C-alpha cells in the first residue's frame, strides 16, 4: 500500500476539488440517482463556491494525494457528539489500493483529537458498494433519513456510525 498525503484544503484548492468531484460523481452516482440529480448536487454541494461557503460554516476539507496526483478528497465537521463525515471520495481506478483506509485512519485520528467517540455519515440506500466498504470498516446502520434537497430531489440515505474505542 503506497502512502498518501492528506492536506487541509485551502481556498485555491477548491477548483481542483470541484473538478475531481465532477469526474467521480458523474461516474459513480449517475447509475444510482440519475444525471439530473448528479448535476444538481454537483452545483449545489460540490462547486468551488459551495465548498467555500461550507468551509465558512465550519466544514473542513482535505485533499488526498498520491505522489503529485490529486486522487481524492474528504470533508467533515462536528455534529453534536460525533464527527460527521460529509464526503470521502477516491478516483475509481485507484479504489482498492488502501487510499480509503488511510483516509479513514486520518478521520479516526481527527475524531479522537476533537475528543469525540464516534463517526457518523449518510450513504444513499442504493450505493451498495460504499455501504459494503463502510461495513467492512466497522460502521453499522443506525437510522434511515429522507431529506428534501430542493430542485425536486431527495436524498434517501442510511445513517451509519462507527464507535471508536479508547485505544
Automatic annotation (TrEMBL):
- CDD domains, alphabetically? NAT_SF (cd04301)
**Keyword list, A-Z:** Transferase
**Superkingdom classification of source:** Bacteria
Asked whether the keyword Transferase is assigned, the reply is yes
**One MF annotation (Gene Ontology) recorded for this entry:** acyltransferase activity, transferring groups other than amino-acyl groups
Tell me which Gene3D superfamilies the record gives: 3.40.630.30
Q: Indicate whether Transferase appears among the record's keywords.
A: yes
Protein name stated in the entry: GNAT family N-acetyltransferase
Origin organism is Kangiella profundi
Amino acid at each position: 500500500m503506497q502512502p498518501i498525503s492528506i492536506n487541509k484544503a485551502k481556498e485555491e484548492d477548491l477548483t481542483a476539488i470541484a473538478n475531481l468531484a465532477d469526474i467521480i460523481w458523474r461516474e459513480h452516482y449517475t447509475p444510482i440517482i440519475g444525471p439530473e440529480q448528479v448535476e444538481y448536487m454537483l452545483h449545489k454541494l460540490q462547486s468551488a463556491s459551495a465548498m467555500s461557503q461550507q468551509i465558512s460554516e465550519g466544514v473542513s476539507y482535505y485533499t488526498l494525494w498520491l505522489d503529485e496526483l490529486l486522487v481524492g478528497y474528504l470533508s467533515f465537521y462536528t455534529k453534536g457528539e460525533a464527527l460527521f463525515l460529509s464526503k470521502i471520495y477516491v478516483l475509481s481506478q485507484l479504489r482498492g489500493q488502501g487510499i480509503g483506509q488511510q483516509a479513514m485512519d486520518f478521520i479516526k485520528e481527527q475524531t479522537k483529537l476533537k475528543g469525540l467517540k464516534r463517526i457518523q455519515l449518510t450513504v444513499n440506500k442504493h450505493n451498495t458498494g460504499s455501504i459494503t466498504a463502510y461495513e467492512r470498516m466497522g460502521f453499522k446502520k443506525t437510522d434511515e433519513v429522507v431529506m428534501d434537497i430542493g430542485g425536486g430531489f431527495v436524498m434517501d440515505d442510511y445513517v451509519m456510525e462507527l464507535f471508536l474505542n479508547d485505544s
